[in-house]
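Example record

One chain of 203 residues, shown exactly as stored in the release files.
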Amino acid sequence: MSLQFSLLQNSSAQSPQTSRSRARVKLRQPTERTFYYFAYGSCMCPVDLKRSLGENTHAFVVGPARLPGYRLAFNRKSLLRNCGVLDMVRDPAKTVEGVLYRLPWRLSKALDEREEVPRGGYKQEMIKINCQGKLYSNVRTYVVVDKLTEELAPNDWYFNVVLRGAITCGLTEEYCWNLFNYMHQLQQRQEINTSCPKLFISK
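Predicted structure tokens for this chain:
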């Protein structure tokens, strides 16, 4: 008798009552609450997100996503990183690409902490996004509360983390190049302003 046939016999020998009991146990297993999160800055990198949330986040990546009607801007200075960090502002002519996560609800508070919500850094905003041909509603993202009047360039560390996340999670090549150029130009402009301070002429 083959092993396959033996297993089949054992399975068929189970009573209908036993099968129903197992089905009920399976149905009673709790399912963890989750929420969708759209990352467009350093959180696009699962390795960096793990640093704040305390567990591997690669498994929570749904895929690359697009948010029409917004554009990126470096509208906040991070005291932790000591440089400009990303924000989103409304712009009907632009589209922001990012990464869609489906995170366990137990990580919600830690994510708020990372985005400095308790200290008034960012605030939650609910959006609709497109991911792999599907529309997702009630997706959480974060936007800066008190925006700078002039954009502040990222440092090299933040630059590299943002770009690594964009490439690793499959954002379009064109968008990655545009993101690289945008951050690089901000850095160049800041270097020029730093090396050539304004001259004050006394009357």
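Notes: Residues 1-15, 199-203 have pLDDT under 50 and may be disordered.
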